[in-house]
Prior knowledge:
mainly alpha; 3 domains
Amino acid sequence: MASSTAGHPDRLDREVIVTGLVVVAGMIMVALDTTIVNVALDSLSTELDAPLSTTQWVVTGYLLAVAVVIPLSGWFMDRYGARTAWITAVSLFVAGSALCAAAWSIESLIAFRMVQGLGGGMLLPGGQTIITRSAGPDRLGRAMSIIGVPMLLGPVFGPVLGGLLVEYTSWHWIFLVNVPVGILAVVLAVWKLPGGGAVADPGRIDLRGLVLLSVSLACLLYGLSEASTHGGFGEWDVIGWLIGGVVGLALYTWHSLRRGAASIIDVRLLTNRVFASGTIAVFLVAMGMFGGMLLLPLYYQTVRGQGALHAGLLLAPQGLGAIVAIVIGGRLTDRIGAGYVVPVGLVLALLGTFPFTQVGVDTSYVWLSVALFVRGMGLGAVMMPTISAAYTKLSKEAVSRAAPTLSAMQQVGASLGSALLVTALTQRLTDQLSDRGLHAPGGGEQVSDVQPDMIPVVGPLLANAFGFAFWIAFGLTALIIFPALALPRHARRDREGTPAP
């Protein structure tokens, strides 16, 4: 339900803040878990005596489970209520984490990671739905900034925690750390989240649409994952999956237009100009900014020879910048509109990304830390205002079906951005090494395996390749300006919190 604070329309009331903190307690697990597992892949491969290509399925299997469950989350929230859906999602994630910690082989670990993914895939749309319904449109910027904390800080501080766990404990602890946090999140949700929210008659589940959309997303995400692994889109087993995903989405669009509101996700929501602009912007943000987050630790670890822990610490300024921007950006979004805030954040993001297009083997850490702080401010001032703006013109009933759309676009955008940047990195490095008659690595994981004794020879070429990839990230980020221009603006709000004429 939307909350209001009579006489103080610019202030978040206690109920909204508590609801946001409960949601954060659940989302922080997922945000940290992804990067922690990525850091630990080599250790998992060694400990479970499995080749790295098989161990990679610990990540891929999770991603596919997320793709399968995202389309279902909207109907599930309508049928059982957002609170029940949230508790179910957190419980699945915690159960999957405990099972992963007890895994006895790489096959069992992959299976249990998919259980984790079923819970993790419902958490983002569920959290956004709960916050949107609780805060209402007039205070959505500040409310969304609360759940922006784990979304933006997870990729920054995950490598630090992952490095600590891998270096000083066994691999089991990268999953066990989720269990107490998840149990606390479930207890808080049962205690504090408001009940209700279920639709009186959600209708029968659109099974055909669910299968079509889930399979399409899974094909896309798997194809993009393979493109990142192989460092390009040239192989037919990559192209085939991507074509299958695109064709499937086209068929689902036709199916949804025929069924209308009865479809699992109603594509007619995109006829809302603000929601469509926000959706496109979220997709581009995920491509340029979150894809760029993949390159940052890789640069510090390969070119500069830092371990996972120190690389994570060097990324901390980006998290600090994001916190500053989240606090300020949420309030400004509610006061003047995302249409003013996002372009400013975009300029900051571009200013913070540009120094990385010029990186070398000895670029000043102080200079890069300043750039990361500015880039973090840009991230915070773009991501959450964009998401909150997408919901402002939707009815409360439409939010539960809109949230999976944004989550799917964010997931696909981040995967596509990562694949494009890894491809740019490896192709540039391949060209440079080939010109010198040297062997070239084949993908992002292989790039990270460059031996330290080769850095004096390969280092400058590798740094140049990272600079080229960051130029791609710079260009993808700049594209956000086009949908940002269509986001809502308002000069002031009256006492009831409605836009002034």
